[in-house]
Structure formats: C-alpha cells, structure tokens
Give the backbone structure.
Amino acid sequence: MAIIEAKRLTKIFGADPKKAIPLLDKGWSKDKIFAETKLTVGVNQADFAIEAGQIFVIMGLSGSGKSTLVRLLNRLIEPTSGQVLFNGTDVLRMSPEQLRQFRRKNVGMVFQKFALFPHRTVIQNIEYGLEVQGIDKKKRREMAMESLELVGLKGWENSYPDQLSGGMQQRVGLARGLANDPDVLLMDEAFSALDPLIRKDMQDELLELQAKMKKTIVFITHDLNEALRIGDQIALMKDGSIVQIGSPEEILMQPANKYVERFVEDVDLSKVLTASHVMVKAETITIEKGPRVALQFMRDRGISSLYVVDKMMRLLGVITADDAVHAIKNGLKLEEAMQREAPSAVPETLLHELFELMSNSKFPVSVIDQSGRLKGIVIKGAVLAALSGNTVLEAGERHETA
Ligand SMILES: Nc1ncnc2c1ncn2[C@@H]1O[C@H](COP(=O)(O)OP(=O)(O)OP(=O)(O)O)[C@@H](O)[C@H]1O
Ligand SMILES: [Mg+2]
C-alpha cells in the first residue's frame, strides 16, 4: 500500500477559492481562471501515490506549484479540495490532536533556506522541533545527538551556524528534519542553495541515508539532473498540474508531451543511461559443447561470435567463427580456442564510460552482474540509438539469453 496518496488534491489561492473548482473541472487553464476570477491555481487536481521507501521527486519551473503541493501533504497549507491519505488515513479529517501527532511522529521537513536560528548552537537548532513538541530535555538531546551523527556533524554540536559552511548548515537542517525519526521527509529545494560540488556530495549522502534508513522522501527540485540522479519516481509540474509521473527513464525516453520533451532535451543521456538500459541479448554457448556445435550455431544465426558460459551463465570467454574453424582443424576444445580478454562492464556502468571500452575492442562489451553472470551485451548501434533519444529495448528483451 502507498504510504502517501493524493486524490484530486487542489489548492486555490484568493477570496472564495471554491468557486474555481467547477472551472478546473471544465478544464480552464490557470491563466484563464486568474484573468476571469483573480483566483490563483496553486495545485490543480493532483493524483499520485508514493510507496514507502521511495524518493519521490517533484520537479517544475518556478511557480509551477511544487512548494504548495508538498505543504498540502502535512496541511501546512490547507487544501481547497481533494484528499491526502497517509497509510490510508484521511489527513484532512484528522482532529487537531491527531494532526499534531501526525506532524510530530510521521513527517519531517527540510527547507531551502536553512532557516537556522543564529543564536542557537547546532545541537539546539536540531532539538528545536522536539522542544516545541514538549519532549523532555534529556530525551531530546539524545535524539538530536543521534541525528547529528547521522549527518556527519559529530563534534560540531556546540558551534553556531555562522561558524559552519553552507553545506554543513544544510546538514544541520537535514538533521533537524530527521530528529523525530519521521517516516516521511519532505524536502523543499533543500540542496538548491549549495555549490554544485557540495550539492552532489549531499545527494550522495542522502542516497546513502535513504538506503540505511528506508525513509520515504518527497524531494522538490527544479534541477532535472538532480531529479534524475536521486528520484525513484518523478512528478513533473506545470501551472499547478502534474503533467507526467514516471521513473527517470520513462521521463527521459517517453516524455508525455512537448512540455516534458523540452524539459529533458538538454540532458546528457550518456551520463544518465547505463549499460542495463541499452544491452541486448547475447548469443551464448555452454563451455562443454564442441567447436563444431559452436560453428553450426553461428551459421544458423548468421553471427560471427558467441559468448561462452558455464551452466550458471557465468561468462568464460568469447569464440569467433575463425577460432572455431581453427579449433576443428587442430582438435582443440572450446575452452582452448576461445578468447578470454573481452571487455566487460557492470549493469550500472554509465554510457559515457562505455565509449572507451567499446572503441578499444573488436567485440561488443559484455555486461556482467556481481556473481559474474552474463546479463547481455552492448553493441554500438544500441548505444547510438539510445543517445539520439530513441526508445531503448523493452525490459523483457534485455535479460534473456539463449
Ligand atoms: N500564499 C499564497 N497566496 C497566493 N498565491 C500563492 C501563495 N503561495 C503560492 N501562490 C501561488 O501559487 C503558485 C505556486 O506557487 P509555489 O510556491 O507552490 O511554486 P513553486 O513551484 O514552489 O515555485 P518556486 O520554484 O519558485 O519555489 C504560484 O502561482 C504562486 O504565485
Ligand atoms: Mg517553491
């Protein structure tokens, strides 16, 4: 079950906001509604479900409704209509006490402007939320220290924010968001104010934290590369509406419309797509077969080489038609005639790292998993097709082997 679900979630700003709802139903645009009614559409009938443990990225240009949407989830902004479900419970029907508990136990929030108190020490900043919740002094110090260690700031607890770099200040913000050990962390442009290199470090650390703690994270950014890097799912917003939700790969390879297309057209696919995206099925033969079988097999399929594997599909070498002919003439076994020096990569290898491997080799690059099993091969044509934006192979086609 989804941990968070939004159903036709809508926010209209202005006097008498509900009167815009029937206009949205009629399909009026944000601009038209503003022109006719002076009401601003913040979020327009958003529908989505976030699975526990996912990083769900909300992306879009300035003013598209990202911050509004994320604040509707914990009712920092009150929705005009629609539903928010948390583990199946309707957040909009919670009593004030239930809502207080929900915010205290279930959600944490991290903002772009670190929003640290300058006259409080690091640890006092981290404790702030816990203090507001009335957690006693000893307990909250304990929780805050744990959170501080998690973000790698041990030793800095008694420093003041202005003694820290921007990246460290953002860590304090992150630690504060994590201090109550929430199920869901809402992050609104949390890394946007950081230098590019520090930003990349923070992304890595967030991914690490996520792997360790299995939090559900709703992450807002207007940076596509950041979204592609950390998102399990990406929701792209325009004028308050979600125009597409999908995995990074789906957003890149199957943009839902011209707007999404324009958003993704400048992405360097070679730094996003991996070997697993472009590999194709490899023709294989098991090691105990003879060179005659190998040669026959190649002739039948009109190919000039085969990947030699054991029964577990572990890659042992490559045999070409010439090698097989040579083996037959000289009475050699397959394993004596095959070549062992074929280039290989792991499924996660990025395309731009594959280029060099490919240019130095007469064979396609083989793709091998952690236990040495052959998952597929990368041929130049497939890489070029993917880079030119053509759809890569269906998932099913990628993994089978003969
Ligand atoms: N309190 C408010 N009163 C009136 N209009 C608002 C209010 N807050 C947001 N809006 C409007 O709602 C729309 C969405 O704003 P929002 O702040 O959610 O965008 P955003 O995608 O987070 O933008 P940014 O990238 O600049 O942070 C905008 O048109 C904005 O002007
Ligand atoms: Mg915003």
